[in-house]
Amino acid sequence: MPLDQISPVIVNSTCPHDCPSVCALEVELIDGRTIGRVRGAKDNPYTCGVVCAKVARYAERVHHPDRLKSPLRRVGEKGVGRDAFEPIGWDEALDEVAMRLTNIAEEFGSEAVWPYFYAGTMGLVQRDGIERLRHVLKFSRQHSTICSSLSDSGWLAGVGVKYGPDSREMADSDLIIAWGTNPVSTQVNVMHHIAQARKNRGAKFAVVDPYRTGSAAQADIHVMPRPGTDGALACAIMHVLFAEGFADRDYLAKFTDAPGDLEAHLKSRTPQWAAGITGLTTEEIVEFARLIGRTKRTYIRLGYGFSRSRNGAANLFAVSCIPSVTGAWQHEGGGALYSNGGLYALDLTLIMGLDARDKSTRLLDQSRIGAILNGDKTDLGDGPPVKALFIQNTNPIMVCPDTNAVRVGFARDDLFVCVHEQFLTETAAMADIVLPATTFLEHDDIYVAAGHTFLQVAKQVIEPIGESRSNHDVICALAKRLGAEHPGFEMSAWEMLDATLKASELPDAESVYEAHWIDCAKSFEDMHFLNGFGHADGKFHFKPDWAAVGESHEGMPALPDHQAITDEADADRAYRLVAAPARNFLNSSFTETPTSQKREHRPTVMIHPEDCTELGLSEGDLARLGNDLGSVVVHVMPFDGLQRGVIIVESIWPNGAFVEGRGINTLISADPGPPRGGAVFHDTAVWVRAA
Ligand SMILES: Nc1nc2c(c(=O)[nH]1)N[C@H]1C(S)=C(S)[C@@H](COP(=O)(O)OP(=O)(O)OC[C@H]3O[C@@H](n4cnc5c(=O)[nH]c(N)nc54)[C@H](O)[C@@H]3O)O[C@H]1N2
Ligand SMILES: Nc1nc2c(c(=O)[nH]1)N[C@H]1C(S)=C(S)[C@@H](COP(=O)(O)OP(=O)(O)OC[C@H]3O[C@@H](n4cnc5c(=O)[nH]c(N)nc54)[C@H](O)[C@@H]3O)O[C@H]1N2
Ligand code: SF4
Ligand SMILES: [Mo]
Q1: H/E element holding 455?
Q2: Which ligand is nearest the CA of 44, by number?
Q3: Which one, out of 223, 239, 349, 617, has a CA that is 20 to 30 A from the CA of 517?
Q4: How far apart are CA 494 and CA 543, in angstroms?
Q5: Is 24 inside a domain boundary?
Q6: Ligand nearest 452 Cα, by number?
């Protein structure tokens, strides 16, 4: 019978992609090997039946003809593609990886091996099991900086703990501000809850973003600052709040550390001052501040995007101070949310092998992989060079800063690379051994979320594609060959997640799976910090202890401020580049699916029409963008939804999709943002000319 005539079974699952929404899913199962449509679970109070278009069409990805189906050994040049590889058996592949890692560790020390991973899947067993192998064998550790270290730093400085007012409360807000986030693209569920508030309460929706994103286009108010200037904007808003009687002085006295110092400090942070830095008008700033001041139920949804600057931690911190001045935290539908990552009190000892962790083992910065592979002593310290990479869940040749350096590093003849992947990515194409990986539909796992409060357990839905194996299975098989011992290497993925739940005093895996999710929200009082903020004194800190947040705290502002350390434009590099995510990709994933490719069309630079005229560029022309790190060529799209002097290239396209084969991260610096590192994807000055 043709597949479309079979009525499919619906199976519960959870979206594993690196996205705050972590949607509860309903997957059409056509047969034991084939899925149909994917929908959001209607009865999940956050997902509410909504998923993004990419995942609705997951069949395109899971059943893609290019899925890796067997282990591969490279027999040709690096970076060529499929023709350079020959299929081999699993035992042969794993034996070779184990042999190479053992030899390298014996010759150069265990720190010469660097297991390297990120969040291609957010499932805790499949994502973090690599840490267990690392810790048991004392391989180099990874400082995970590519996504959330700047934003974590900024949030923890003021609030002290990583959660906040329940995102479902957006539906009860009167003003929702998407600050440095583009939910239409990056977390579509937020838009659903905003739509509820607009419909039910006539709520206003505001977006703070340097360009007119899909979200900004739907907003009532779009505040469009220059990139990297949110600290100045936040200070000027707070200046107005104090000056015009919108500050909640009772709240400030009870719940904050230094309201007097803050008020005095903000006297000189006038809207005129901020206008000069942000490129906004004084009137816009004052009007926005008054709206926030008048609206008790103001909910700020803080994004990661505006933290991806050298001053990103300071900026996110400054914005998080606003509800502490107005006292909005006290109200239902009020306050600010960055992430609920700290809500889930899971004991990850078993999964991550934390009992075997030796903190004296070298820690290497994930975002500086280019410098590290090229032997930079500031990164390597006294330790050995990195001689072997074992990679799961990430595609550094596309997604890391300073692509040229990353490529030179991967091209080293004396570097052994094993990549465990679903597709032959640009990174996998540089590997010596490639192992085929399952997708979330082909293995079991447990999921927590940044954007909501639900913990979910999902079971395997279909048979693994080809000979693919899960991360957990590969880690355990390698551990056996490497002589690594830990109880976690002896268990199935299901046993691991069940044991993790039990160790965390939560219901067992089967019960959570049966329920599809359990809600880990704390009480209203706790989520709104009415019982105190996360610091020992229970106060929100306007004067953060930056030294407690990160080592590179020197120069962090004592009170919320504009920290003038960005890569500012100058006479030679007149444009500020924002390399924001594209709607139809998810980081480097979905760049392989036909629908996403069609919708995104091609790498494009958005330039203000007046800048286009000055540069002699028109729609469809090729422009070259460059700085000290290199240059890239892209097609031009004149666009009036940004300030002059700001340009946008949405991504993350493969390098190979660009005219000269060099992708946008060629231009991104690997400088770590203070105080605790972090990649600065949206903080780049470039020159632009016709190509
Ligand atoms: N220009 C620019 N660059 C950026 C950003 C930006 O905004 N602009 N954002 C940055 C951010 S925030 C992030 S988080 C990074 C993310 O960058 P990546 O970590 O590369 O992103 P993903 O696409 O999430 O996942 C990477 C790979 O994991 C694989 N994968 C998925 N599930 C599994 C699995 O179960 N097992 C195995 N073995 N592999 C799996 C996928 O096939 C995919 O190729 O990119 C960063 N780079
Ligand atoms: N479609 C899609 N969804 C995704 C991803 C994707 O690549 N594509 N990536 C996933 C991942 S790993 C993450 S971490 C999240 C990130 O999702 P978000 O939190 O939304 O962060 P970004 O997408 O990096 O950036 C959001 C917006 O910040 C803006 N921005 C840049 N610099 C500044 C600034 O200085 N000030 C202000 N106010 N705004 C600024 C950008 O223009 C962009 O529109 O999204 C996830 N969801
Ligand atoms: S919105 Fe995010 S979590 Fe939801 S289906 Fe899409 S990628 Fe997955
Ligand atoms: Mo991310």
Answers
A1: strand 454-458
A2: 3
A3: 349
A4: 45
A5: no
A6: 3
Question: 243: CA distance to ligand 2 center in Å?
Answer: 33
Domain containing residue 666:
575-690
Is the distance from the beta carbon of residue 437 to the nearest atom of ligand 1 less than 6 Å?
yes
Model confidence band, residue 6 (pLDDT cutoffs 50, 70, 90): low
Question: Are residues 321 and 385 both part of a single domain?
Answer: no
pLDDT of residue 146: 98
Give the residue-averaged pLDDT of 68-95.
97
**Residue 373 and residue 248 share a domain:** no
The pLDDT assigned to 239 comes to 98
What does the pLDDT read at residue 615? Answer: 98
Rounded to the nearest whole angstrom, what is the distance from the C-alpha of residue 682 to the centroid of ligand 3? 23
pLDDT bin (cut points 50, 70, 90) of residue 65 is: very high
What letter represents residue 306's amino acid? Answer: F
Quick check: pTM over 0.90? Answer: yes
**DSSP string for 170-203:** GGG-SEEEEES--HHHH-THHHHHHHHHHHHH--
Given this model, what pLDDT does residue 7 score? 73
| Radius of gyration of the chain measured on its C-alpha atoms | 25
- Average pLDDT of span 538-565: 98
Whether residue 126 sits in one domain with residue 191: no
Distance 19 CA to ligand 4 centre (A): 7
What percent of the chain shows pLDDT beyond 90?
99
What is the 394 CA–ligand 4 centroid distance (Å)?
11
- 396-421 average pLDDT score: 98
**What residue type is 437 in one-letter code?**
A
Residue nearest to atom 11 of ligand 1 (CA): 147
Answer yes or no: do 327 and 357 share one domain.
no
386 and 317 share one domain: no
Of all protein residues, the one whose alpha carbon is nearest to atom 5 of ligand 3 is 51
Domain count for the chain: 3
| Distance between Cα 58 and ligand 3 center (Å) | 11
Instruction: Assess whether 196 and 292 both reside in one domain.
Output: yes
DSSP states along 186-248: H-THHHHHHHHHHHHH--EEEEE-SB--HHHHH-SEEE-PPTT-HHHHHHHHHHHHHHTT-S-
Task: Based on the fold, state whether residues 330 and 254 are members of the same structural domain.
Answer: yes
Binding site membership of 153 for ligand 1 (Cβ less than 6 Å): no
Mean per-residue pLDDT for 629-650? Answer: 98
Q: Whose CA is nearest to atom 4 of ligand 3?
A: 23
Residues contacting residue 397 through CB under 8 Å, at least 6 positions apart? 403, 406, 407, 410, 425, 426, 427, 430, 655
Residue 657: inside a domain:
yes
Distance of alpha carbon 233 from alpha carbon 621, whole angstroms: 35
Check pLDDT > 60 for residue 1: no
In short, whether 392's Cβ falls inside 6 Å of ligand 1 is yes
Mean pLDDT for the stretch of residues 634-652: 98
What is the distance in A from the centroid of ligand 1 to the CA of 120?
A: 5
For residue 369, tell me if it sits in a domain: yes
Question: In terms of domains, do 327 and 356 share one?
Answer: no
The answer, yes or no, to whether any atom of ligand 1 lies below 6 A from the CB of 615, is no
Q: What DSSP string runs through 59-104?
A: HHHHT-TTS--S-EEE-S-TTS-GGGEEE--HHHHHHHHHHHHHHH
